[in-house]
Every structure is written in structure tokens, then in C-alpha cells.
Amino acid sequence: MDMSCRMALLLHETPDGASHHDWMLERAPGGLLATFRVDERIDRLDGGAFEAEAIGDHRRAYLDYEGEVSGGRGHVRRVASGWCAAPRFERDRIEVVADWGAGPIRILGVRLEVGAECERWIFRVSAEV
After folding, report:
1. Domain locations in the chain?
2. Nearest alpha carbon to residue 82 among 6, 1, 3, 25
């Protein structure tokens, strides 16, 4: 399997003391990063599920960036990085075969809702690739 797309998990600490993680993965090799806000370290999952909020595509620079986020939105630190096969994005579904370094996993996402303020997804993780 061609694992030619990069991905990263960033810890984003905001000025009010709150934090979350940003999961970023290339839509295609060298392309923009599909980005999801998650509450947990998804790089440690080999099963189960997690919810996420799509927060818009980001520049590839964030795969390697650590530091202040523009506009006084806090700072980010990379906590994990890995590779994935080119993700399959459909309107209401995402399929990714990813590897954070412990072997490949399958991540299947289904859109839960689209509202004025957010786009919520649920992702199921499986070690069966």
C-alpha cells in the first residue's frame, strides 16, 4: 500500500488555558491538509471511535510547524506524526489507512451533522486493514 501522504497530530493550547488536538492529513501527496479538532490523542488508538470537528483545510507548513498561532489563538506543538494512503473523501464519508508508527490502522469517518457553526464527524478505528 502506498503510504505517501503525511499526517500530524498537534496539541493546540489556547490563551484561555484550554487545549485540544488538531489532526491534519494531506488530501493528496503535497496537498492541503484536511484538519479536524479532536479531544484526545488519536495516535494511540487501535480500536474504538472518536468524534471530531472539521475546521477547514490548512497549509502543509503545519505538518512541521510548532509555535505561536496567528491572531493570538495560542500555540501548537506536534505530539505525533505519521503516514497514510491517499484518503478517500466523499461528501459524508472519509476512509483512511494510516500508520502512526505502530502499524497500519483503518479509520472510517461518517459525517454526523453540518451546522452554521460546525461540521461534526465520528471516526471508527480498526486494526483490520
Report:
1. 5-126
2. 6
